[in-house]
User: Fold these one by one.
Assistant:
Number 1:
Amino acid sequence: MGTPHETRSEQAEAVVDRLEEAYPDSTISLRYSDRLELLIAVILSAQCTDERVNQETEQLFETYDGPEAYANAPQAELAEALNSITYYNNKAKYIRSACETIVEEYDGEVPDTMDELTDLSGVGRKTANVVLQHGHDVVEGIVVDTHVQRLSRRLGLTDEEYPEPIEQELMEIVPEGYWQQFTHLCIDHGRATCTARNPDCADCVLADICPSEKGDSEVDLAADEPW
């Protein structure tokens, strides 16, 4: 079991410093060329790997050009184009509906505020944060995906279980200049080392400050369950 820093703010800064050194080129892994493609890619990425989304959107983005094309696409046709994506029927509905709103209310442009984005079908705060950060260069929160959720709890940065309260706690302890990068660092580390089922604590740059470290700790704080 590692020994975390005395305060969560100190712990968060140490986590950022170490992960930044370990993953100097950390960035978003979804591929897109404009704000609409980014929005669609993030909607599709819910409970689906970025790798799978990138494979699917390569052809999708060639087939549909602009929000009108998605809004006017038959539901069955768009769903078929997404059939290797998890929950593809629902996601096709979300994309069609969101694009209808973008055409009708925003002159075909992806909106640039949290409230407007979260009013779109299929868009929650996590998706909106990604679009704001990478589509509009607006950082007003921290994207809490499954990796951020898991690592934040394992590292003792939060006791909260759900994304929105986790985000609020992280915003209080992660330096504001790192709100965007914190997510990418957690994603890279979560994929490479701190995996959900069998984290490689022996080769982890955070093991000595991680209260979930398997060497001595009996509990995975991400799940509040024994290892």
Number 2:
Amino acid sequence: MDYIDPHIHMVSRITDDYETLARMGCVALSEPAFWAGFDRGTVDGFRDYFRQLTEVEPKRAAQYGIQHFCWLCINAKEAENVSLSREVIAMIPEFIHKPNVLGIGEIGLNKNTRNEAIVFLEHMELAIQYEQQILIHTPHLEDKFQGTRMILDMLTSDRRIDRNRVLVDHVEEHTVRHVLDEGFWAGMTLYPVTKCTPSRAADIIEMYGPERLMVNSAGDWGPSKPTAVPDFIMEMRRRKHPESLIRKIVYENPLQYFSQSQGFRFTPRDASETVDAR
């Protein structure tokens, strides 16, 4: 089954992983800007990183027939440095119209601090100014519920935000309902240890249905598995769910959400016409 991974950090993966993803059926992926495994100290470090996301990774992916899209931001782990964050936000417009850029993300909270919230709101303003979609990072473990609530409050307090163009990621059983009830898209990240597992994600689908829900692998610097979406497909098949339902979650939902972005020019494997939001 063809699938789209809506959130995977390929800069942290070896090239063999692209080949494996292609063999598993991955036809497209989106890579949010994130932490590089260490805190960067200058705006030029982020400029080079954005060049990697917009120039290098699309070429690596294309070698295996995978279309690569990305998002731009300074992530929540580094947002405590407000002065650097503002330099990065001011630099993002240099890249925002690159052919594979979908929007601003993954922005959000890490430790739910005042500085993180300031940087989050300034990213929101940038997204509104440039009419960009938004991808949200919610905190980990014990900070997740509080951080998710803080993020939803900031988003819903601004009437300019189009909720159908916002994806709130890393939802779990105790946060997914709040995200969906507010009219946002929700993403479930499938990790071996933290966040969701394929089994838990299948449980959530059975509880809430498939509307505005996606699954992703993240595949970042910690323990992760880039083929977690195929694991979810197998779990859904084990539970005897119809192929049409599985395809909606792993292919049609990402396609529907990303198609709202001017940077999403996607050519399906079984069609000659390009999906272009422009």
Number 3:
Amino acid sequence: MVGPNGEQVGIVPIEDALRLARDANLDLVEVAPQARPPVTKLMDYGKFKYESAQKERSNRRNQGNTETKEMKLRPKIDEHDYETKKGHVVRFLKGGDKVKITIMFRGREQSRPELGFNLLKRLADDVEEFGFVESHPKQDGRNMLMVLGPTKKKAEARAAAKASKSHGDEHEELPARKPQAEPKKKKKKGPADNMDPDIDL
């Protein structure tokens, strides 16, 4: 038998164990029924179940579900389009999601699989800071597939995003004030300013 604080009580007859549990106002719980003799523990079973449920709920919440996003490319993709798609892939990986990259071949492009392979290798190299190749490029009919996994887990990515957001709020700079224009100085009037311009002097 194990005591309420984890201390070893030793081998105790069942009647004595039940009496000890009653005296301590605790439950006698069998924790290892396969052991010979079986192992029991004195504990507050209701409290134990509640704490276990709380811990499980917390783990589930922190775990976060990793999604698999998909990005489709063509072997002869334009440079601007490539940069845009790469930006999306980086965003997904930063968010802790996997990304399945699909290269779609059409017509005679199917006879040039090296185009797709080179493109996937280039993309993997470009985003290696945020993700790693989880599934290497492989041909699947008309398509070539590769899966990138995030270097950060979903929960870590959320925590980092939350931290950077709160950090950014603290140090948010106020917009700089525009310098105020100096007021125009009034020209002093001399005796000539009050005269009629049509009068000959």
